[in-house]
Amino acid sequence: MDSKLNRHLSKAAVSMSFLMLPFLANPAYAVNWVERVDAGNLLGTAQEPTGDGSLNNIRGLLEHNQDIDLFKIYISNPTTFSASVTANFNSVLSLFDSTGLGVYGNDDAKLGDTNAGLPAGHAFGPQAAGWYYLAISTDEVMPTSGSGTGPENYIASITSEPYTAVLGPTGPGGGSPLTGWATEGDPNLGVFESYRIRLSGVTVSPVPEPETYGMLLAGLGLVGAMVRRRKFPTAS
Ligand SMILES: [Ca+2]
Ligand SMILES: [Ca+2]
Ligand SMILES: [Ca+2]
Disulfide check for 137: which of 5, 68, 109, 167 has CB 3.0–4.6 Å away? Predict the structure, then answer.
């Protein structure tokens, strides 16, 4: 067996393992999540989208103007993370970390447009990959911490002017995790509107299934065995 071919096969095996790395870290599949029943208001009742790949969209429904939908998401790329709403109601987005502490929020992404947006690369944005909670609500509710829902409990006054501001947890209750929502305005005002949240930098199932690892390892083992067999031919 000529050594050129041996080298070529070894290289091929190494290249293959490198080619598989981005596949493991970054599955090419896209997930478009549709809310199941109704996502809850708080960490314990948040809905976690499932599937395999990057989470590109969440579609759901706000059933009334004081309904909140909270989603548990894995931000795999904090520098490219962004979220933007398309809806026919005045939407607000708030992001919380894995312990419920406020990260940042927004009422209106642009002047004269009531759709909310969380921009990428913002100083208040997520600084590390990990689990977060993303809330979509109307501008009739305000996230609170502690045991009350008065202004002293507000995590941030997201729905006050200027509406286009991107806010950190600068409210009096901003140092503690989310425990409730203060309501404002007329609770009888109906919404029952659907929404779409476009996302970037979010992954579903960041850890590949054990079967995927097994298959990849078996494949690599096979290539390795072929290379070894060619390198050390048995005497004939
Ligand atoms: Ca809902
Ligand atoms: Ca809800
Ligand atoms: Ca808004």
Answer: 68
State the distance from the centre of ligand 2 to the C-alpha of 69, rounded, in angstroms.
Answer: 4
Question: Would you state the pLDDT for residue 1?
Answer: 47
Ligand nearest to the CA of residue 84, numbered in listed order: 3
The rounded Å distance from CA 12 to ligand 1 centre is 50
Task: Name the residue type at position 168.
Answer: G
Query: How far, CA to CA in Å, does 126 sit from each of 5, 170, 207?
Result: 49, 16, 20
C-alpha 40 to ligand 2 mean position (Å): 5
What pTM was computed for the model? Answer: 0.77
* CB-based neighbours (< 5 A) of ligand 2, an ion: 38-39, 67, 69
Residue 199 Cα to ligand 1 midpoint, Å, equals: 18
The fold adopted by the segment(s) 35-203 is Jelly Rolls (2.60.120)
Give the integer Cα–Cα distance in Å for 49 and 32.
9
How many whole angstroms from 108 Cα to the centroid of ligand 3?
4
Contacts of 40 (CB under 8 A, 6+ apart): 46, 47, 68, 70
Cα within 13 Å of Cα(126), Cβ side:
28
Q: Decide if pLDDT at 220 tops 60.
A: yes
Distance in angstroms (rounded) separating the CA atoms of residues 36 and 77: 26
